[in-house]
Design a protein that fits this description.
The chain is mainly β. The chain contains six helices and 30 strands.
Length: 462
């Protein structure tokens, strides 16, 4: 073998050994995945083989620089931009738009999905608002929602305000628009109403109220339509028979003054005594002009049910509802005597027999009116001439006593032959005189009815 060939073979062998050493010895490379660098040592020949050797998966959408077929060199830097799967919900009820992108800015994803945001629209990531210009941390997939701003018309009295908002609820939209709500203000829609469509809402501002209960006043506020609603929402409901001034159905008063009247009713039972009457019955066992008790009177008993009404603790009414007769009254029965007893009496004129004695008020009269001779009349109702011994009684006695002889102490015996008006409140007899022997009388005496006993006797003197 000549020397030249030997040299060639030796050189080739050295090259083979050097190549073997080059490919078998691990080379240091820098791998940057989504901006995060790391160091690798690989014996692979190409970029793709080095990534495969390191167990780094590759998706067709990923961007690898240099290309995977590029020969691997020591100290090489390999850049990998991972592709992300993004779902963007742009309209409620519509399927989300799906894209794949290696970008990290949401605004680029929106551009790729042909979605445009207005200044009032909001972009959400997993329900949280994000800025489309802020990059997101790398992850395999993202779910974004676009909350479109909707028009909101707010009416406050005669004033009308238009708001464009992408808030989730009505309350949040008003807060973001600087509309402050007092606790007692009232919205025509619930404050948690979802803002997913155009809304028209009316705001009723609360007015201050002074609520007075049994002399104690409380400050409150309400935007209710009626007094009853305002009281209920402030913790002062009208219970049972309670009422308010003004009426609960009335609108809120301009002066804000409301009074609550607390009302309660009680049912009570009340016993009432019923008076008894008197009955007069003939009693043949009792002497004339005497009285006896035949039957004692007894009060009746009535039970009444009353409804008592109290307002603010004071009784204002007692209303009878029903009554029951527990025991009827029993009249007292008084016996008037019908037994005539004839007695005798010694008098200055001798012994007399009498069958009745009565205490009466006695006056006297004469033909000319007690000495007045300007007019004289001596004719009595019976036709007899007025003189000593003529007696006059009131009209109720005269009809049955005309012709009855009476003995009157200090006067003597006379006969009933005339009548006059007398007195309505007492028994009365007028003793007669002639003008020449007239004596004035004005005193009480017991008079005696002389025998014989008449057939018709009034048992009770009128």
């Amino acid at each position: 073998m000549n020397r030249k060939l030997i040299l060639l073979l030796s050189g080739a062998l050295l090259l083979i050994v050097a190549a073997a050493l080059f490919f078998l010895f691990p080379r240091r490379i820098t791998l940057v995945v989504d901006g995060q660098p790391q160091t690798l040592h690989s014996t692979a020949l190409t970029v793709g083989a080095a990534l495969e050797q390191a167990g780094i998966p590759q998706n067709p959408q990923d961007i690898v620089q240099p290309a995977p077929a590029t020969w691997l060199r020591p100290g090489m830097e390999i850049q990998i931009l991972r592709a992300h799967r993004i779902w963007i919900e742009d309209a409620p009820g519509q399927p989300p738009i799906e894209i794949i992108s290696t970008a990290h800015l949401p605004t680029e994803w929106l551009t790729q999905a042909n979605i445009t945001l207005t200044a009032q629209d909001v972009l959400l990531l997993n329900g949280q608002a994000i800025s489309p210009q802020e990059p997101l941390p790398p992850q395999p997939s993202y779910l974004l929602q676009v909350r479109r701003a909707v028009p909101l018309t707010l009416q406050i009295g005669e004033e009308q305000n238009r708001i464009q908002s992408s808030a989730e609820t009505l309350a949040t939209a008003l807060w973001q628009a600087g509309v402050q709500l007092a606790p007692a203000d009232r919205l025509s829609l619930p404050s948690d109403t979802a803002l997913n469509q155009a809304l028209v809402v009316r705001l009723q501002r609360a007015v201050p109220l002074t609520i007075t209960i049994q002399g104690q006043s409380f400050q409150a506020a309400s935007a209710a339509e009626t007094i009853g609603q305002a009281l209920a929402e402030n913790g002062f409901p009208l219970l049972g028979l309670d009422y308010s001034i003004p009426d609960a159905a009335a609108p809120l008063p301009e002066d804000g003054q409301i009074r609550i009247v607390r009302v309660r009713e009680e049912i009570t039972l009340q016993q009432k005594l019923l008076p008894y009457g008197k009955q007069y019955v003939a009693d043949p066992n009792t002497e004339l002009d005497q009285r006896s008790t035949v039957q004692s009177g007894q009060f009746g008993v009535e039970l009444a049910r009353l409804r008592l009404r109290y307002e603010d603790g004071q009784q204002v009414a007692s209303l009878p509802e029903a009554a029951w007769l527990i025991r009827p009254p029993i009249d007292e029965q008084i016996g008037y005597g019908t037994q005539v007893v004839v007695r005798t009496l010694e008098t200055p004129s001798g012994t007399i027999e009498y069958w009745r004695a009565v205490n009466v008020y006695i006056t006297s009269y004469s033909p000319c009116g007690q000495g007045n001779r300007s007019f004289c009349n001596d004719i009595t109702a019976s036709g007899m001439t007025l003189r000593y011994g003529i007696l006059a009684v009131n009209e109720s006695w005269y009809g049955w006593m005309v012709g009855q002889q009476l003995y009157i102490p200090d006067y003597g015996v006379g006969v009933v032959a005339d009548w006059g008006y007398g007195f309505s409140d007492k028994y009365w007899v007028d003793v007669g005189y002639s003008e020449d022997d007239y004596v004035p009388w004005s005193s009480y005496r017991t008079i005696y009815f002389l025998t014989p006993v008449p057939e018709n006797i009034p048992w009770i003197l009128p």
